[in-house]
């Protein structure tokens, strides 16, 4: 076996954590989407939950359209949260290890009842103000990374491809500017 | 929609579990890792999004040929196709600024809470606030428009 050292160096530079945790994680995200689609015919996205859940507490006409789906969307989101916790209790806690999983060094680890949990170092104001724009943009733009990025691209939807290119390009520009301004983390 | 199959919600729950586990495993539940992609320090993210899109794309293509309707709802298998208008560009750009600033998107934020990231509640609070603001504004313009032209 001959490995090209230039190629290996490029891989090491651009993929400091390898690619397997990303590829395996992506397959699982796709599998979760497919399970729901196979049983129900619904290509589920994550951001509709924001509006459908608001319909419990708001009479705004805009949110009324999600009344029929709001219950199962809560179930979907609780599943996602507990799926994250299941990951924390296994791989993140080191209870299960695999050569396909690269732990990484971001953020802070802390322990509760034997489970290793993780906390971000990214500043709350970035999360809060970024979150507001994510809440507006995903709902006005008809989808987020899962609705457009996974279900829409998986459907070869031109609308979703345009949506993904738009938010990816703008997000890259924004993150570069924020980093250049010296905001870290 | 009222009398759904008893397995409808359990299946949605299991699908969510696998989905959330994948977001944890891929580190998309960590804003730092998303920001590292956006600043070209770790190019792993497309393997998550497009890996998931390929898996769902296979199912979206094959299932309609195997069965006529989904077993738990009786709904026909259809692709996720939404009409294009300028909202896709405007919303996508606003989402892009928010994603680039925070490093978090809705599904990853839910999973982030699960991996222990209590700080992500700031992002979730922001997302609900943003979703409410656009819903409030669009509800208003919807009422205005429908009284004038009858269109959305």
UniProtKB/TrEMBL annotation, chain A:
TM segment ranges: 22-50, 71-91, 161-183
Membrane topology: Multi-pass membrane protein
Keyword entries, A-Z: Cell inner membrane, Cell membrane, Membrane, Transmembrane, Transmembrane helix, Transport
Coiled-coil features, chain-numbered ranges: none
GO CC terms of this entry: plasma membrane
Annotated localization: Cell inner membrane
Domain of life the protein comes from: Archaea
Native source species: Halorubrum persicum
The keyword Cell inner membrane is assigned to this record: yes
Identification of the protein by name: Transporter component
InterPro entries the UniProt entry points to: Sulf_transp_TsuA/YedE
Automatic annotation (TrEMBL), chain B:
Keyword entries, A-Z: Membrane, Transmembrane, Transmembrane helix
Transmembrane segments annotated in the record for this chain: 7-25, 45-66, 87-113, 119-137
Stored Pfam families: DUF6691
Keyword GTP-binding set for record: no
Superkingdom assignment: Archaea
Keyword set includes Heme: no
Protein name (database record): Transporter protein
């Amino acid at each position: 076996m001959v490995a090209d050292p230039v190629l290996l160096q490029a891989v090491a530079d651009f993929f400091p954590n390898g690619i397997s945790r990303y590829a395996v994680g992506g397959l699982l995200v796709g599998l979760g989407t497919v399970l729901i689609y196979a049983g129900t015919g619904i290509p589920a996205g994550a951001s509709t939950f924001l509006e459908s859940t608001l319909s419990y507490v708001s009479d705004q006409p805009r949110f009324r359209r999600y009344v029929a789906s709001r219950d199962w969307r809560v179930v979907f989101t609780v599943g996602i949260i507990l799926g994250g916790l299941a990951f924390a209790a296994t791989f993140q806690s080191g209870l299960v290890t695999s050569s396909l999983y690269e732990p990484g060094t971001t953020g802070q680890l802390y322990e509760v009842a034997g489970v290793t949990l993780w906390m971000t170092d990214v500043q709350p104001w970035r999360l809060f103000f970024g979150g507001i724009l994510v809440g507006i943009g995903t709902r006005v733009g008809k989808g987020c990374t899962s609705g457009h990025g996974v279900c829409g691209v998986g459907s070869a939807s031109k609308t979703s491809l345009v949506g993904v290119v738009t938010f990816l390009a703008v997000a890259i520009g924004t993150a570069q500017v924020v980093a250049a301004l010296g905001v870290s983390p | 929609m009222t009398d759904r199959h008893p397995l409808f919600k359990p299946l949605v729950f299991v699908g969510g579990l696998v989905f959330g586990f994948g977001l944890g495993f891929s580190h998309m539940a960590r804003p730092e890792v998303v920001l590292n992609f956006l600043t070209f320090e770790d190019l792993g993210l497309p393997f998550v999004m497009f890996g998931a899109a390929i898996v769902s794309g296979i199912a979206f293509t094959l299932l309609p040929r195997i069965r006529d309707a989904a077993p738990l709802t009786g709904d026909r298998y259809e692709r996720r196709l939404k009409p294009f208008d300028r909202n896709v560009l405007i919303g996508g750009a606003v989402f892009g600024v928010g994603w680039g600033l925070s490093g978090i998107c809705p599904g990853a934020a839910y999973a982030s809470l699960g991996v222990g990231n209590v700080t992500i509640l700031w992002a979730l609070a922001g997302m609900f606030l943003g979703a409410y603001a656009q819903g409030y504004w669009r509800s208003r313009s919807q009422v205005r428009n429908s009284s004038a032209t009858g269109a959305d």
